């Protein structure tokens, strides 16, 4: 491979990209399972071949120079093209091997996917699956930038490069403590919650923004007292009388209702539609394509 007439090894470009991503020679060496002197020597060799410094040393960290920023963009494109070619060749050599990186919001994974993953592994024991638990917004971002092959998020997606199929449509329910003034009601208007404290998911979860937007639409800014990534902690905090929460049907079915009341009708309703997403312009390995086909089939026959 060549950049600007200089012949470069793919491995060297990968070293350079990892240092740029982590901002540290030490962290890059650890991530690549090589020694720091090896990676330092590689970067020094690149700088000599290109005739320009690629990093500024700032204390224990490094940052890209202007020349480094130019090289990084081209290096990223070359490495992505190389990986895409390698993936396609691997598919031709062995159609039932591969590795999948799948992003799942924590409250979704345990409910919908253990059985699917188990069945998929039985059919394709040589395909390894790596799961990453993050909020829907982070999952979308990582599918867009290529850190994940496939993700699960709340629809609609915000990025137009994403394809998806929906696999469940639910709504949010109101969760209140047993002694809350609205606890005996079967239906509540969102506007009636203007004086309550809210316990919601963290900002990297799609529901974080959806709930705030729903409150603003009916005329108030929610008073958020606590944010969490764990639905069971949210329900426990509601039970302890710290505030109210809005959670989907699937989660409400798993809540211990000893200290809380679940009010199923909240108006206007807040939909919770889940979809499996992938990048429409990026090459999908056989394993990824088969996962999408297999998952869609299983979801449709639930």
From TrEMBL:
PANTHER family found in the cross-reference section: HTH-TYPE TRANSCRIPTIONAL REGULATOR YBHD, NITROGEN ASSIMILATION TRANSCRIPTIONAL ACTIVATOR-RELATED
Stretches assigned to the HTH lysR-type domain: 8-65
Name this polypeptide is given: LysR family transcriptional regulator
An example molecular function term from Gene Ontology annotations: DNA-binding transcription factor activity
Any Pfam family matching the protein: LysR_substrate
Database matches in CDD domains: PBP2_CidR
Keywords: DNA-binding, Transcription, Transcription regulation
GO CC, alphabetical: cytosol
The organism of origin for this protein: Paenibacillus bovis
Matching InterPro entries: HTH-type_LysR_regulators, LysR_HTH_N, LysR_subst-bd, WH-like_DNA-bd_sf, WH_DNA-bd_sf
PROSITE patterns: HTH_LYSR
Transmembrane segments: none
Family stated for the protein in its record: Belongs to the LysR transcriptional regulatory family.
